[in-house]
Design a protein that fits this description.
Layout (H helix, E strand, L loop, with lengths): L2 H25 L1 H36 L5 H55 L5 H34 L1 H5 L1 H10 L1 H11 L2 H42 L5 H11 L6 H16 L1 H27 L7 H44 L5
Helix pairs in contact: 2-3, 2-6, 3-4, 3-6, 8-9, 8-11, 8-12, 9-10, 10-11
C-alpha cells in the first residue's frame, strides 16, 4: 500500500470520527442543552453590557478629548443613556401592554371584517374555478394563524422580559464598571492573547470597528428616529395602536431594503379594516418616512461605512431570514461585514507567510 492510499484512508477515518463525534454530541442533547441554557442566561447580561459599552465608549472619548474629565464624561453619557431608557420603559411598557391586549381582543373583529370581504369577493368572482376560492380561504386562515402566533410570541417575550427583570437590572452596573475600566480590560485581553497574534488582532478589531461600529451606532439612531416619528404620525392620524406599530416600524427599519416593507405590513393590515382613507394615510406615512430615511437620515448619520455590494447584502438577508427569521435578517449584514474583514485579513496574513524568504 503506497503512501497516497494511506493518506486517503487516514482522511476517511478522520471524517468518520468527526461524524461520529457530531452524532454522539446530538444524542447527548438532553444533557448539555439545560447546561447551555443556564450558561446563556448567565452570559446574556454580560453580552448585552459589552454591546452597550461598545456603543457608548466613542462618545465618552469624544467628550473627554474636549477637556472634560473622563469620570464626568462617563457619568454624563451613562445617565443620559440609561435615564432615557428607564424613562421610556416607565412610560412605554404600560401603553404597549394595553395596546397588545386590545389588539388581541380585536383579532376576531378583524377576522370577521376580512370574512365579509371574502364573501363579497366570492360572490363577485363566482365564475372563477373552485380552487381559487379555496386558496382565498387558506390565505385568510393562514393570516389568522400568523396574527395569533405573532401576538402569542409578543406576549411571551413581554412576560419573559418581566420575569428576567432582575438580570436586566444588573446591566447598568456592569456597563458602568466596563466603561470605567475600559482601557484596563483591553490591556488584560491583549495580555492573555498570544504575543504573535496581538498585532494581527488589534488591526483586525480596528478595521471591524471602522467598518461596523459607525454603521451600528448610526443605524440604531436612525431606527430610533423613524420609530418615534412613525408612532407620533400614527397617533396624530388617529391610527390604532400607534406606539406598538411605531416600534415594529423602527425595529424592522434596521433591515436593509426589506425592512420598511416588513414593518409596514401590520400597520396596513390593521388600517384596511378601519377605512380606505386610513390605509392611504398609513401608506403615505411609511413612504414619506422611508424617503426621509433614505435621502437624509441614512446618508448623513450612517453613511456608507460597510462598503458592501447590494447583491451581497441581499444574499445575506435571504440566508439570514431563512436561518433565523427576523433576528437573522437583523444580524445578517453586520455578520457579513465582520466576515469580509476577516477574509481580507486572513488573505493578507497568508500571503505574507507564503511569500518567499530571501
Amino acid at each position: 500500500m503506497n503512501e497516497s492510499n494511506i493518506k486517503w484512508i487516514f482522511r476517511f477515518a478522520l471524517l468518520l470520527l468527526a461524524f461520529l463525534t457530531i452524532f454522539v454530541f446530538l444524542k447527548l442533547a438532553p444533557i448539555w442543552i439545560p447546561i447551555l441554557m443556564v450558561i446563556k442566561t448567565f452570559l446574556l447580561p454580560f453580552l448585552i453590557s459589552i454591546f452597550i459599552t461598545y456603543l457608548l465608549h466613542p462618545f465618552i472619548e469624544k467628550i473627554h478629548h474636549r477637556g472634560i474629565p473622563r469620570s464626568l464624561a462617563i457619568l454624563f453619557i451613562y445617565l443620559l443613556f440609561f435615564g432615557g431608557i428607564g424613562f421610556g420603559l416607565y412610560k412605554g411598557i404600560p401603553v404597549i401592554v394595553e395596546q397588545v391586549k386590545d389588539l388581541a381582543e380585536s383579532i376576531p373583529q378583524f377576522s370577521n371584517t376580512y370574512r365579509v370581504w371574502l364573501v363579497e369577493i366570492e360572490s363577485g368572482t363566482s365564475h372563477l374555478p373552485a380552487f381559487v376560492h379555496g386558496q382565498l380561504d387558506d390565505l385568510l386562515n393562514s393570516m389568522e394563524s400568523y396574527a395569533d402566533s405573532l401576538l402569542s410570541k409578543t406576549l411571551l417575550y413581554l412576560m419573559a422580559f418581566i420575569n428576567s427583570i432582575f438580570l436586566f437590572a444588573i446591566i447598568p452596573f456592569i456597563v458602568f464598571y466596563m466603561l470605567k475600566d475600559y482601557d484596563q480590560m483591553l490591556k488584560a485581553i491583549w495580555y492573555i492573547t498570544p504575543r504573535k497574534l496581538r498585532k494581527v488582532g488589534q488591526l483586525f478589531f480596528r478595521d471591524v470597528d471602522e467598518s461596523l461600529g459607525n454603521y451600528i451606532r448610526g443605524q440604531l439612531l436612525v431606527c430610533l428616529i423613524i420609530g418615534s416619528v412613525s408612532s407620533l404620525s400614527f397617533w396624530l392620524t388617529g391610527m390604532k395602536y400607534p406606539l406598538l406599530l411605531g416600534i415594529i416600524v423602527g425595529i424592522t427599519n434596521i433591515i436593509p431594503y426589506f425592512g420598511p416593507f416588513i414593518g409596514s405590513i401590520p400597520a396596513a393590515i390593521i388600517a384596511v379594516t378601519i377605512s380606505f382613507k386610513m390605509l392611504l394615510l398609513v401608506v403615505l406615512i411609511i413612504f414619506g418616512l422611508q424617503f426621509i430615511e433614505g435621502n437624509l437620515l441614512s446618508p448623513f448619520i450612517v453613511g456608507r461605512s460597510l462598503r458592501l455590494h447590494p447583491i451581497i447584502i441581499i444574499a445575506a438577508l435571504l440566508l439570514g431570514g431563512e436561518i433565523g427569521g427576523v433576528i437573522g435578517l437583523i444580524v445578517a449584514v453586520p455578520l457579513v461585514a465582520v466576515v469580509k474583514v476577516f477574509i481580507i485579513h486572513a488573505k493578507q496574513h497568508f500571503s505574507v507567510n507564503d511569500s518567499p524568504q530571501l
